[in-house]
Amino acid sequence: MFSETFLRMIYLGCFLFLCGLTHAIPSYPIWWSLAVGHQYSSLGSQPILCGSIPGLVPKQLRFCRNYVEIMPSVAEGVKIGIQECQHQFRGRRWNCTTINDKAIFGPVLDKATRESAFVHAIASAGVAFAVTRSCAEGSATICGCDTRHKGPPGEGWKWGGCSEDVEFGSMVSREFADARENRPDARSAMNRHNNEAGRTSLNDNMFLKCKCHGLSGSCEVKTCWWSQPDFRVIGDYMKDKYDSASEMVVEKHKESRGWVETLRSKYNFFKPPTERDLVYYESSPNFCEPNPETGSFGTRDRTCNLTSHGIDGCDLLCCGRGHNTQAEKRKEKCHCIFHWCCYVSCQECVRVYDVHTCK
C-alpha cells in the first residue's frame, strides 16, 4: 500500500498539473500575436514555423501544417482586424492598444467584456476576409472563385469576373479560430458566438460588383460578380454591434459529459441576441486610470476633441481630470494652382493648431 504522504504528493502534483493546464489555456487566443510578428512571412516555404506560432492547440497546429499556404492570409486577417479595432476605438478610453508580448492586448481580454466580444468578432471576420480575398486573387492553389452562388443574371448584365468565395474563407476562420473554443465553459461559448457573428457580417455585406463593357464606356453590357465590401464597412457594422451588445448570464447544466456552462439573456424584456449580435457577461473597467490587472493604460496624454460632446470629447475621454492645451505647428500644402496641362503646384504653409491632451 502507498503511504499517506506519497498519496498526498500525488494529489498535489495532479492539482498543480491541472492548474498549469488552466493557466496554459487563457481566455484569449495567444496565436493572434502572429499578426504583429514576422514569423508568418515565410510560412509558405518553411512549414516547420507552424510549431513556432505561440498558443496553437493541436487541431490548429495540424491545420497550419496541412494548409500552410493560406497561413499568411490568416495572419494578415488578424492584422487587419486589429487595425480596424484601433480605428473604430481611436476616440474611446480603451483604444485597442497592443503591446509587444504574446498576449498582444495584455490582460484586458481576460474578462468576458464588450471589448473582448468585439476583438474576437473583428479578428475572426478579418481572417475570413483575408482568406477569401487571397483565394479570389489566385494567391492560394487550394481555393479560387465562388461558382455556386450565381443565380439568374439581371437585365443588361451577365455573370463574370471572380465572385469571392466567402464560404471558404469563413470555413477556414471557423476551423482555425474556433479550434481552441471547445471547452464546456461560458467563455468558450461566448467566444464561439462572437467569432461566428464576425464571420456572418461578411455574408450580410456581400454586394454585386459590376464592370461596364462597350464602345467609349457606353456600358452596353455589364459583367457582375459577388464581392466583399471594404473592411471598413465590416468594422462600422461590428462597431454598431458592440454598442448594442447583449449582456448575458451564465447557467450551469449537468450533462452526460459533466457540467456545461451556457449563456442566456440577462434581461427577459429585451429581445434575445441573434447569431449576428455580440454577447458578453462581465462589465468593462472604466479605463480612466492605468491598471496592470485590468490591462487599462488610462487616458493621460491622450488627444481629445474640445468641441465634441461624445466619448472622444475632453470631458468624457479625460474622465473629468481636465486637459492641457498646447500650440502645434504643422506644415501643409496651400495656395495650390492647376496648370494646363496637367499638373498642380502648391506652396508650403505653416499653420498653428491647438492640441488638447488629457491631464
TrEMBL record:
InterPro entries: Wnt, Wnt3, Wnt_C, Wnt_CS. PANTHER family: PROTEIN WNT-3A, WNT RELATED. This is Protein Wnt. Transmembrane segments: none annotated. GO terms for molecular function: cytokine activity; frizzled binding. Pfam families: wnt (PF00110). The keyword Transmembrane does not apply. GO terms for cellular component: extracellular space. Belongs to the Wnt family. Its main location: secreted. It comes from the Eukaryota. Ligand for members of the frizzled family of seven transmembrane receptors.
